[in-house]
Design a protein that fits this description.
Blueprint (H helix, E strand, L loop, with lengths): L23 E7 L9 H8 L3 E8 L4 H9 L4 E4 L4 H12 L4 E2 L23 H11 L4 H8 L3 H15 L4 H10 L17
């Protein structure tokens, strides 16, 4: 998504489960399959001397989440419905010292050009996120708490996800998730190193 803007944005690392190694201007905290409701991770990034600023990248605009992230020291709270150009512009504004919070988007669909595991199999971004959390071993109650969805909504997403990936049980869904890229990402984007 950001590749066409390499002259304006340089991606250093991609691993939400590892320490920040490079000095970065902005740590973009992607909430996909991450604990949106546990902003201690955001605080850790804010307190890291290698991160100048932290921006949350999410589709969840629950007012308590936005307020909590900003109270923890996040410099921005950006919607996943932003197109690449708008995202780059928002990151540039944060880099310039502005606090940027996207207006609460309608939850209709993601921006064109975004990709996520399971998209080619017909999973929506939300179904993919819930499957990623299940693949990580989260219970339905934990998924509901982490995504700020009701338990019944989570169950509904799980049912439709199971139908789309043609599985009958949670064990089968986890195995499918592991085989299709739903485990946490532990790779660096080496082709970004060294700049445009």
């Amino acid at each position: 998504m950001l590749d066409p803007y390499r002259d304006r944005v340089l991606v250093c690392e991609i691993d939400a489960n590892a320490d920040v190694v490079d000095a970065v201007d902005i740590a973009l905290y992607d909430s996909f399959a991450q604990p949106e409701s546990d902003h201690s991770e955001i605080r850790v990034l804010v307190d890291n001397p290698r991160c100048s600023r932290v921006v949350v990248y999410t589709w969840n605009f629950d007012p308590d989440l936005v307020e909590s992230a900003l109270a923890q020291g996040a410099s921005g709270y950006l919607s996943k419905t932003l197109g690449a150009r708008e995202l780059v512009e928002a990151l540039e504004a944060v880099h310039a010292g502005e606090r940027v919070v996207s207006s609460q988007p309608a939850r209709a669909r993601s921006a064109p050009g975004l990709d996520w595991p399971g998209r080619t199999e017909g999973l929506t971004d939300r179904e993919a996120e819930i499957l990623a959390l299940i693949t990580q071993g989260k219970s339905n109650a934990e998924v509901a708490a982490l995504t700020y969805l009701s338990p019944n909504t989570v169950k509904s997403y799980i049912r439709t996800t199971y139908r789309k990936i043609d599985v009958q049980s949670r064990t089968q869904a986890v195995l499918w998730g592991v085989a299709h890229g739903f485990t946490p990402d532990h790779r660096r984007i080496d082709h970004w190193r060294g700049g445009p």
